[in-house]
Amino acid sequence: MKIKILILIFSLFYFKINAQTSDPDTLKPVSVPVITIPPDSSTVEEEQEDEEEDKEEEETPANDFTKIRYRISADGTYTSGNVNRALIQLASGFDWNLNKLLKFSTSPSYIYGQQNNVLAERETFVDFRTTVLYEKTLYYLAFGSFEKSNLRKIDHRLIAAGGVGLKLIQKEKVYLSVTNVLLYEQTDFVVNNNFPDRNLLRNSTRFFGEYTLADGKVYISHTLFIQPGLTEKNFRWNGNLIFRYQITKRTGIRSTIENSYESIVVEGRKNNDFRWTFGIVFEGKK
Known about the structure:
With 286 residues, this protein is mostly beta strands. Helix content is 12%, strand content 57%.
């Protein structure tokens, strides 16, 4: 009799435990279009990087708050024969969403190129950015960067800036925005005998647009920076056009057209630089 009572109690306890156990949530977050940034050592990349990540956050569901995003891209060409040419471009982007109010980002890049076995490009760019209210229509940003360029004979260039951004159009397939910052620039040129270093203030205005087609598989963006000097006659502008095609969830191919102009360059260097590259990109988040 006692044994039957114990079996009955054990059975009731077992069924009670099973009734309180539920299956885990198997819903997966909705994937967002992958957005990449072209390496351009003469462009204030931090403004564009922040803007593109802001749009990703808006398209991500509220229950899919991703704290860390990263992307790594590589472009390159190699030719031999009458012209020996080698070029490699490496770019990356890392974003840490501390909360819904504050975000930290960085997008270091490196470019190396040779022409007929002579060093042509060796460009290094490192930055750190802070964006406040990045999910709002009007947001704020501050950043600093370090740049070193063999192409323009720059030993180092330090930049510190801060300002505001405004999102003009925020639709599923079309996005337009403008940012404006006050920028301090200190440039130390390799040639210093008859070419003094520069310490000046600039105003930097950036116009940015992006478009997605074919259910997010095709991505097109364009960016234009206008950066006149405020404390001296020194003008700079640059722009780029990006075409990207998504192959898999994490990888894609892209083509980038870039143009950069500086009114003041060292002797023997041209004011304008044009670059057209093809490459691949890898993106992820966690």
